[in-house]
Amino acid sequence: MPLDTVLCLDTSGSMAGRGMRELKKAVREFILGIQETASKHNLRENVGVVEFGAKTRIVQPLTNNYRAVLRAVENLNAGGSTPMFEGLMEALKEVLQNGGVLVLSGQKKMTPRVILMTDGHPDDKENVLKAALSFGPAGWQAVGLPHPIPIACVGCGGDVDGDLLQAVAKLTNGMYVQGDIGQLSEFFRRQVLLIRFAAQFSHDMRQLRDLMVLRQFLAQMGESVDEDELVGLKTLLLAMLLCAADDDSDDEELDNMPPLGSRVRRGRDWKWGNQDGQGPGTVVRHKSDGILVVEWDHETSTNYKYRFGAEGARDVRVVDEPRVVGVSGRIMPGCRVVRGRDWASRYGDQDGGRGSVGSVYKVMPEKEYNVHVRWPNKHKNVYKYEPPNIKEIQMEEHMVMGTAAALAALSLAGSRAGSGGSPGSSRPSSGRTSTGTPARRRQEPSDDKSCSVM
Predict the structure, then answer these.
(1) Confidence band (pLDDT; 50, 70, 90) for 190?
(2) Cα–Cα dist 401/75, whole Å
(3) Which residue has the higher pLDDT, 10 or 423?
């Protein structure tokens, strides 16, 4: 399902001449940008057009036939007053009849949006606010919308009712910018780039919420955006993302805690019996300050929470023991991974660059994008791993038992153990195995059988 955008355009008499020329130019550039997004980012967008002026009507229903959209806009003529309320109600009708929800690659869903452009004062200000309420969180259910629809407002010229448009944006969790009619193309271009930003970071809600990341992205695209518009773009995007309120809450990291994906063993204050199977586990969540959640290697069906600073205790300690898996190559929490053969170009160097090694902290087999990874640069994302077909990431070769590298390492370790080391070697032992992981120390289980199960 493509993204749906309804353009609600002021074609009143005040738009005659330069106003209509700039409007048509802006829409042409908007359509070109959408086409580029579809070809380069595999994200399609339907566009519908509503005009309000001498005529108030749906000029073009939602479609990805961009030639039809351009023809409809080229045939617009300026005249009449500014019936903005009626225009918004036509936009609402189009969304109700033909609007849908876009599902991004990271399973995040995006609502349609309305882009409202005007250069003047509406005929009926009070009703415009009522129309805005119908789109927003306070009224969407009453009019039959499946979810709120944000409105991005752009006011052109000195005669625009900025206070009204600001109120419309606030009531719908949208955005408002004001400028000269000649800046209209810039506004529409940034609307295109906002959707590309959503597509690029669709797997990482933290990035989508980060104002600095959005600023850097726009700067890379050649856009210098003032603070007010930047905040507006972020507000609009989060309103379009249906999952923004509760997505990825388990992925938040707290200060003074081992990073997600860290490997741990029972620590100095352990009192949980044989809960750990006397083996290592992986930090999969920060529950609260001083409390973390661990998945033990020997038991993946249940996660347990432990103190790491709470009550002045540390039930677990961090170790350097990457998880080693069988010949099946099944990725599990605690595995170390690198970018794979199908690493998507949109990821860029978010892993810190080729050769960086990340830690898996969550695997969700039922999802299309199923492996959550934390990289050394603190960036986290979820990737598609469906061997043998798709491998956006892959395990370090020596972490798969049975590979040539692992067998060679085991063979070398065995020969050294039999010979007592290389002749003439005076290098002290590092306490590590030949695969680079620390030697495990046997620990006696505690007699305390109490547990804290997630």
Answers:
(1) very high
(2) 67
(3) 10
Coil vs helix vs strand at 137:
coil
Q: Structure tokens of 295?
A: 């998945």
Q: How far apart (Å, rounded) are the C-alpha atoms in residues 251 and 264?
A: 18
Strands 390-391 and 385-386: antiparallel
Kind and range of the H or E run holding 22: helix 18-41
Beta bridge partners of 353: none
How does DSSP classify residue 347? G
Query: To which residue do tokens 């290697």 refer?
Result: 297
User: How many CA within 13 A on the CB side of residue 212?
Assistant: 1
Residue 451 has pLDDT above 60, yes or no: no
Distance separating alpha carbons of residues 441 and 95, to the nearest angstrom: 63
**CB-CB contact of 233 with 194 (8 Å):** yes
pLDDT in tens, 81-118: 999 999 999 999 999 999 998 888 656 789 999 999 99
Cα–Cα separations (whole angstroms), residue 324 to 47, 279, 403: 50, 13, 11
The enclosing H or E element of 375 equals none
pTM of the model: 0.60
Contacts of residue 337, defined as CB under 8 A and 6 or more positions apart, other chains included, come to 331, 357, 358, 359, 360, 371, 373, 393, 394, 395, 396
Q: How far apart, in whole angstroms, are the C-alpha atoms of residue 98 and residue 100?
A: 7
Cα 423 to Cα 405: distance, rounded to the nearest angstrom: 24
In contact, 147 and 140? CB cutoff 8 Å: yes
Phi/psi at 54 (nearest 5 deg)? -60, -35
Q: Looking at 323-435, which runs of residues are DSSP E strands?
A: 336-339, 358-363, 371-374, 380-383, 385-386, 390-391, 393-395
Contact 84, 165 (CB under 8 A): no
